[in-house]
Write a structure and sequence with these properties.
alpha/beta; six-stranded parallel beta sheet; 5 helices; 16% strand
Length: 196
Amino acid sequence: IAQLFDLTGMTAVVTGGSMGIGYGIVKRLAEAGATVIIADVNEAEGNRKVADLAKLQRQAFFVKTDVSSEVDVVALIRATLDRTARLDIFVNNAGIYPQTPVLDMDVALWDKILAVNLRGMFLCNREAARSMVAAGSGVIINIASVDSVHPSMVGLAAYDASKHGVWGFTKNLALEVAKKGVRVNAIAPGGSRAEG
């Protein structure tokens, strides 16, 4: 990948980066030369992935982060800047997708899904964009879903609502910060096999 992208000297943060799509993104960014911050609630797995990358001479660090917590997200940005003095790429990948039909769903589950998938994405975008606007450059990538465009199965209504929100939010924030040197895009993957 280094022949396609040279990210040497850059810092990238990936939320939900300790497994699945998130860890796949972490590995590719690290292969391209970026220093990668893995932000995740799973501390044991995050630290294990940092150790795996170190064996490959890749630079990575772990910061325990609950993206639905404003305090955690602010601390994540501060820890990133304290460690590397820059933030070039922020990938909002953290998300949950419990499968429950609407007729069987309680408010607590709805709130939890929206807190992680939509509130968390908002908090990470806001804090990353503040840092990037101050620096005059940066890239934010929001991992949406094919479900942002159309539903894939019954039982994912709350997930679909959150991912529709990611899609719309991304387009609007892109308008807000484009002239300030920050690009904001969304990727909408379909189903994938977990990695790592």
